[in-house]
Structure formats: C-alpha cells, structure tokens
Design a protein that fits this description.
The structure holds two protein chains of two kinds. Chain A has helices at residues 26-38, 50-55, 75-91, 109-114, 117-126, 176-181, 196-208, 222-225, 232-241, 268-271, 282-303; strands at residues 42-46, 67-69, 102-108, 130-136, 187-192, 213-218, 248-251, 254-257. By secondary structure, chain A is an alpha/beta fold. Chain A has an eight-stranded mixed β-sheet with strand order 2-1-3-4-6-5-7-8, with helices on both faces. Chain B has a single domain (27-102), classed as Alpha-Beta Plaits (2-Layer Sandwich), CATH 3.30.70.20. Chain B contains two helices and six strands.
C-alpha cells in the first residue's frame, strides 16, 4: 500500500469530460478518482444530487460504467437490490461465482445524512456487499445552497442567512461516521482528494472487504462555499492542516489516523478563504476553534496517541 | 399530432446505451482564462493531471527533450475542448509552468 504514488494512478478515464459540474468542482475530482480507484467491474446506484444532475443530462452521460439513478432517498436501497440480484444470478448459474462485481452507492450529503439516512441504515443493517460513498459538500448545492444536516456551524447558506440576528447555521455538523460506525460495519473511512494516495488506498480497501463499507469524501463547492475556483485543492489541504477534517479509517473496530498532522494551523486560515464564513466575528472564530480542539482531543484519545498536534502559534 | 410516438413506442425509463456520451458536449465556452503549459519548465510530476476536475489535461506518450537536454517520456497537454478554465492546474503546479492567460475568441 505504501508503494502507491501519483505515478501509479491508472490513466484510463471512466468519467468522461463534457459533464456540467462547475469550474473547479471538488465533487468532480472525487468522482474521477473514485472511478479510477474502483475500476470497471462496478455498478453504480446514484442518489439525486449535484453529480447526478450534472453528469447525466439526457440523452448524454459522463459515466463509462453501468449506472442507475433512482430517487433522492433510496440509493442505498437500490444498491441493496442490485447486490441481491447479482447473488441470485450467481445461484442460477447465469453469472460465474468468480466474477466479482462491486456495487457502489453514491450520495451527496443531503441524500445521505438527511433524506437517504433510513435507506442507508437498512442497507448497513442487512449487511449487503455494497460500498457507500458520501461526497460531502456541506449543503444542498444543486438546488441553490440550502442547509443540510452536514452544514458546519456558522456557515452561511440561503436558508441560514447571516445578519445581525441569524449568524448562519446554528447547529453542528451531523456525525455521520458515528452513525454508520454504530451499525458495526467492517470498514468506515474519511477521504480527502488532496491526499490522493491515501484516497486510493482507502477506496481499494473498501472494495476488497466483503460486506457494507462506507467512505466519507470531502468535496469543496465553489459557488456554495464562495471561493475562487482555483482554490479547491488548496482549501482541501487546509481542511486537513487545520484539523477541521481528519483522514482516518475504522477497520473492524480498529481506529487509525492515516494523515497525521504534527502541528495544526489555526482554523481561521481555513475559514478566511471562504465567503460562507466571511461574516464571522473574532469570538465566533474562537468558538469554532474550540470545537475543533475538542474534536481533535477526541480523535487523539481514540488513536491513543497525539496524531493531530497542537495549534502552531504564528 | 398523430405522427408523434406514443408511450408504447418510447424506450422504457430514460436509458442511455452509449457510455461517456457527454464528450459530445464541449464545455470550452465556459472558459474565461486559458491555461498554457510551458513544456520547458514542466517537470512531469502529474499533479495538474491529478487535480483536473474535467479531465481536460491529457497525458500523451510523446517524448520531449528540453533545451537543457532533459528528456521526458510523457507530455502533458490541455484539451481546450473541455477545459473550463478553473485554474486549479496553474495554482497547484509546483514549478509554476502553467500560466493563465485571457481567453480571446
């Protein structure tokens, strides 16, 4: 695994150009590498969301793998059905037992942490051999930036505006990894495409493991987070360097941080490049910093060592 | 009116049988700034290719020898049919071999 470098990324593109995702879209980078990591032997069930809308404008598709879109809430349920059908075909002798086809369900944060949560829970409970990928852009971006359960504290969205009374989102981001982990699934991980070798290692591990696996992918959104399109990768790196996003995996209950950060940057560095946090006062930035510090402390406790270090003073 | 196909004649659902058919749609018109690669400066690190969301950076098996005598096996070139001009490649290039210039049509 450690020998995997940028040079080993396969050249073949399974996501065709010509899709209508925005300039500098983070989800586009996630999908491109997701398909490269998983290869051709997959069937994708896709929930409604940015990627679904922008990649499949009838009669065109950007996907070069079998792909199905059903509805917002049931990507996990459809993926379960496909997996059951594959099992049945193998029993009937139509499909060889050696042929391994991984079923992949993809959903955005709205389609996963809000609308599709019960379908996801059912899929995890029944133990289908499905990989669920959540690309998290922290709001309903495709319909015009409405808040979702994954929107972070104080973030501006069109339904949580920032003024003198409302200061953007007033609730904390939902801990989806905690919810998924509680189902006792064999593999759960968070990935960030700015750390691309780690991204590949985790996705390949998640496909090899039999049973339900879950990947939470960080996915910056240019119009929703209000930044210049060329900053997508820079913001993704800052998220890890400030400790607001931690790359980790939980394999059969064993917790491991895959991208250690010996010295963290202040969270302000991450917030100030995004227009959705432009209204924050010094006190509000400090509140976020405190919450990140608490999260980091918890992560370090789980890891049993100081994998994410203290904030570096300027 | 009667010449229009009825519901029985239409394909069931919305099935698309041609994979990757979105290549027919060129997104070049979205571009305001155009990235240009300086092949002399480029060190073939693959970073721009990795982070391109389209993908609009193509890896070609074309050898290239710089003026200083360094030979590379591959060449990176920009597919101006699909590049939306986001500028991630220019921002992430470690040797600043990609510059964004104004698009003139």
């Amino acid at each position: 695994m450690s020998t995997f470098t940028i040079a080993s990324i396969p050249r073949e593109e399974l996501l065709a150009p010509g899709h209508r995702m925005c300039q500098g879209c983070g989800a586009a980078i996630v999908m491109r590498h997701l398909l490269k990591a998983l290869g051709k032997n997959i069937i994708v069930a896709h929930a409604t969301g940015c990627v679904e809308v922008t990649t499949t404008l009838y009669p065109e598709t950007a996907w070069r793998v079998p792909w199905i879109h059903v509805a917002f809430e049931n990507a996990a349920a459809v993926a379960s059905g496909i997996e059951a059908a594959l099992k049945s075909l193998k029993k009937k002798g139509v499909l060889s037992y050696e042929k391994r086809v991984k079923v992949v369900a993809i959903g955005g944060d709205g389609g996963t942490v809000d609308i599709g949560l019960q379908a996801l829970s059912g899929m995890l409970e029944r133990g289908h051999d499905v990989l669920y990928v959540l690309y998290d852009n922290e709001a309903y971006m495709n319909t015009g930036i409405q808040r979702s359960g994954a929107t972070p504290l104080y973030a501006w969205t069109t339904t949580t505006p920032a003024g003198s009374v409302w200061r953007g989102e007033w609730r904390r981001k939902k801990d989806i990894i905690g919810i998924v982990k509680a189902h006792g699934v064999p593999y759960v991980a968070t990935v960030n495409f700015a750390y691309v070798t780690d991204f590949y290692a985790k996705l390949r591990k998640a496909t090899e493991i039999e049973g339900p696996t879950f990947i939470h992918a960080y996915s910056p959104c240019v119009p929703g987070w209000r930044y210049e399109p060329h900053l997508t990768v820079k913001i993704a790196k800052l998220a890890v360097q400030t400790g607001i996003w931690v790359n980790y995996e939980i394999e059969k209950g064993t917790f491991r941080v895959t991208t250690p950060v010996p010295k963290r940057l202040p969270v302000e560095e991450y917030l100030k490049v995004q227009g959705r946090f432009a209204h924050l006062t010094k006190e509000e930035v400090e509140t976020i910093q405190k919450l990140v510090d608490e999260d980091v402390e918890y992560i370090n406790k789980l890891a049993g060592a100081t994998v994410i270090g203290p904030v570096e003073k300027k | 009116m009667s010449s229009l196909p009825g519901w029985r004649d239409l394909p069931r659902g919305a099935t698309i049988t041609e994979p990757g058919s979105s290549v027919k749609y060129k997104t070049a018109s979205w571009r305001v700034m155009r990235p240009v690669i300086d092949q002399e400066k480029c060190i073939r690190c693959r970073i721009c290719w990795t982070y391109c969301p389209e993908p609009a950076i193509i890896e070609l098996d074309e050898p290239y020898t710089t003026k200083t005598g360094r030979t590379f096996k591959v060449t990176y070139s920009i597919d101006y049919d699909y590049c939306k001009g986001c500028g991630i490649c220019a921002e992430e290039c470690p040797v600043k071999a990609i510059t964004m210039v104004e698009e003139v049509r």
